[in-house]
Amino acid sequence: MTEQEFRKVYPLIAGWIKKTLAQQASAARPVTSFGFSRLPHYYDAQLLASSMVVLVPKVPMPPLSAMGLDRFREFEQMDAGGTTYLNMYFVRADQAHSESLHFHELVHVIQWRLLGPEKFLAFYADGLERFGYRKSPFEVMAYSLQVRFDREAQPFSVEAACQSLMQDMTSPGDSPAFLKSP
Ligand SMILES: [Zn+2]
Known about the structure:
Strand content: 5-15%
Largest sheet: 4 strands, mixed
Distance between the termini: 18 Å
Bound molecules: zinc ion
Radius of gyration: 16 Å
Structural class: alpha+beta
Number of strands: 4
């Protein structure tokens, strides 16, 4: 993705996110209200109290192809179990009680917060374009931490793990070209 293209679509995507979150705000509840027992051993209380969940029949995706990003059509049409925008994430109702899925989306909440929306979207789009959804770096990171959560009994700080992984991942050598210059 070129800088010019990103500059053109970023306001559209940011506007869509703002509108979507505002529309869903009244249906959102903090993840703490689900009563999961393991998450508090992996995420600090403040993050859990401020991360909002909306249960939906189908998770909302920005209309990327209509914005001219036709190559993301497959991603846009994916019927995902969950998706995250800033501190709010959407979970397909049939997955509502999957603590593992909530764990995964909370990794994205941290990624959004650490990078801020503009950098997050630039990196995410770049990874999606170069590697596809499942192999894009931010998904690889979320899935690999989720595998640890699923298989290992020993808790760890996801925030600390994210910080060090993100530092490597967003180092200038791996950044989308247009983010390298300040
Ligand atoms: Zn994910």
